[in-house]
Amino acid sequence: MRAAQAGAIYVVANLVSAGIPFLLLPLLTRVLGPAEFGAVVNFFLLVSACTALAGLSVHAAIGVAWFKHDRQDLPRLVGTAIILGIGSTIVVAAASAIVLGTVGHSIGISPAWGAIAATTAGCNVLLQCRLVLWQSQQRPLPMAGLQIVASVFNVGLSLAFVLLLGWGGSGRNAGVAISAVLMAILAVGLLLASRQAQLGLRWKDVSTLLAFGLPLVPHALAGLLIATADRFVVSAHLGNEALGVYGAGAQVGAAMVILGDAFVKAFNPWLYARFASESPSDALGAVGAMYASIPGFLVLAAAVGFVLWVASSLLLGPAYRAATVILPMFMLGGAFNGMYLAVSGLYFFSGRTKLLSSITLPVAVLGTLITIALVPRMGVLGAAMGYAATQGLLALAAWLVAQRAFALPWNRPRAAVNTWWQLTTRASQ
């Protein structure tokens, strides 16, 4: 019941925090032409690319450390994570500027924007350090509040720069970057003020964080490829105008990703607690919850997809109406992504991040090849089909490997679901 209540709060927080920028979409698709909106999408793609290295996924290590680390010693680990996150962000920002100084002209992004994108990515990781610790502590209300504050800053600054100063697409990018910096400062300040972080470098903590984070770099790069290959292929084959239309459709279709993210925020602390108890009944119930997520996400995708299809004429400007054709593929891909998230917590809790990378890299390459094959033949619809196919392959591979790698009662699905249901109903009484 506590997990269900937290899940409800996370759903509301995700809908509000993502819904505020979502409400910006009808305005942007009317103020910015498809080509200029495509430039905004390119900046977001660069931020995603830098996220694989900037911050070194230190927030993920903090989330697991709450369950495994000595609570008295945890602030020193968090402080080391903050310094490591800042240092890696500076390195990635410099590298991004150097690389774009050489090839940036071919994709229309300057070295300065490259450094800004890397800084934005690193600041997002620092914000996640505060959020993920609250998540592990099962404190959804402060986490939800900070998420909403971040969205308000993001949209407020973007509106000011786009409408008041007339900066166009650059104004939207600047709003995202400046709000990320402000929220990172606030997040670190909150950690220090609550004494949940103690700044300093301790080499055993650096070693712990790197041992967790470095194997995730290939996974993060693969995740980046999975999430953005469709957009890069559309940009390369169809141009910025088609990318703008596709990006608008993807932003509407991201509703399923938002719901999946809310699910994993509530589910992972519950899952970690089940495995930490080392109880056979808890393990069986955890497997049951993972099995139950499969039909759950399919039903949710169908319902959300119908609502978005009905509302698409309000959400998208006239120049972007073609994006409605690709919505079903984003709903299906979002459902597959939720199924992957349901099982991915196993890999993080066990610390077997290398195994996760061995799954995501081949899937990313295969999914990219599928997308490259489909786009020239089917245009933006082919890209959306490639996205859905890639997410489906990722979910399938993660589930198959988990059943071989983790000694859990996978071959008892009915008993597992029944046990999960009993745990849920017992907690609600």
Structure report:
The protein is mostly helical and 429 residues long. Helix 3 packs antiparallel against helix 4 (74-107), helix 11 packs parallel to helix 13 and helix 12 (280-315) crosses helix 15. Helices cover 86% and strands 0% of the residues. The N and C termini lie close together (9 Å). It is built from 15 helices and no strands.
List the helices and strands and how they pair.
Blueprint: H1 2-31, H2 34-51, H3 58-68, H4 74-107, H5 111-136, H6 140-164, H7 169-193, H8 203-213, H9 216-238, H10 240-253, H11 255-277, H12 280-315, H13 327-350, H14 353-405, H15 413-428
Spans of at least 5 consecutive residues with low confidence:
none
Helix-strand pattern, N to C?
A: HHHHHHHHHHHHHHH
Largest sheet: none
Radius of gyration: 21 Å
CA-CA gap between termini: 9 Å
Which range does the strand content fall in? under 5%
The backbone outline, from C-alpha atoms, is globular
Annotation, overall tally of beta strands: 0
Report the total helices: 15
- Helical fraction: over 70%
Overall pLDDT metric:
85
> How does the helix and strand content classify structurally?
mainly alpha
Task: Give the key terms.
about 85% helix; mainly alpha; 15 helices
Give a summary of the structure in a few sentences:
By secondary structure, this protein is mainly alpha-helical.
